[in-house]
Amino acid sequence: MPAYPGAEGERRIAFDDLKRQVSAIFLNRGMSETDAALLADSLATADLRGVHSHGVLRVPEYAEKLTSGGVDPRGKPRVVSDRTSAIVVDGANAMGAIAAHFAMSRAIERARSTGVALAAVRGSNHCGALFYFAMQALPEMIGLCATNALPTMAPWGGRDKIVGINPLAVAIPSGGEPPVVLDAAFSHSSHGKIRIYSQKGLAIPSDWAFDEEGQATSDPAAALKGLLQPIGQYKGVGLAMVFGMLSSLLSGAAYGTGLGNMIDGPKPGLDGHFFLAIDVAAFEDPRVFRRRVDEIVRQVRESRPGGLYAPGGLEFETEARYRRAGIPLNDVTWRALEDLL
Predict the structure, then answer these.
(1) How many CA atoms lie within 13 A of 29 on its CB side?
(2) CATH label of the domain that carries residue 206
(3) For the whole prediction, is pTM greater than 0.90?
(4) CB within 8 A of 80, min separation 6: which ones?
(5) Nearest 5°: CA angle at 93, between 274 and 171?
(6) With bands split at pLDDT 50, 70 and 90, how would you rate the model's confidence at 2?
(7) Which of 131, 159, 249, 332 has the highest local Cβ count within 10 Å?
(8) pLDDT digit string (tens) for 106-130?
(9) Are 219 and 211 a contacting pair, CB within 8 Å?
């Protein structure tokens, strides 16, 4: 994961304090105590692991969804179809993290008896950082999650904003090493990360986005109006389309432009997600599996003097540092939280 611009001079807050503040904001907007705490934990955990694009930066837009954006603060996700390893969940227009946690929990519970279980979700909303839900499966299972997203990319060679970045997250249990956790969209960067650069008044790398004329840009303001650049050119677009389809079509959720757009915003209750739980013990001795994962992680780390990171390694290191020193938040994010309390 590319590093965010430096946190020097930013104010810091303890993880538990941040969760309490954010939970209070959602509680005051109609969510139950349990759901408000879960949503706050998902956002604060993203910041704790350095994924600030999906952290409490999102609180103002989430608060708006709960008040005037049409999302049901008391929505209760439910299972609407259950065929052994195939589960369909209706998110009941709840906040996306609530529907996602519910669905992944059901997939994990079922995989304990079937070995593998998939929960497809409809009727949901933006669910935040996917790693949070993939990691629910740890340490006994492998978790895989995907979600659709508002269209911010064009088909390769085109200029129409019709493809979402539709991210994928995978969490693989380990032994003594940190688990392998990959959370990546199929664009070079997310809108949230570009917003962080914009808040800091910094230029973005020129391979992150196109402006409205289809030219590569280093201006975050122009990038937010333009198109995100896919990873791997046409391959990134293809992967985004495939995982967007898996996240939408199995459950009957909306896809692409059916979700809304970045100007008018998302249409509430139309998002779809995809959650897969794989019980390692159904395939291999878990001790052998975790030992081999550890070997792979060490092989990567020791492949260069000074060490390299396997997926998730940098985030685990960031989490340990932020737990000691506090989570850095810039002034724009601080002020937005204070205004909502």
Answers:
(1) 30
(2) 3.30.60.50
(3) yes
(4) 88, 89, 90
(5) 25
(6) very low
(7) 131
(8) 999 999 999 999 999 999 999 999 9
(9) yes
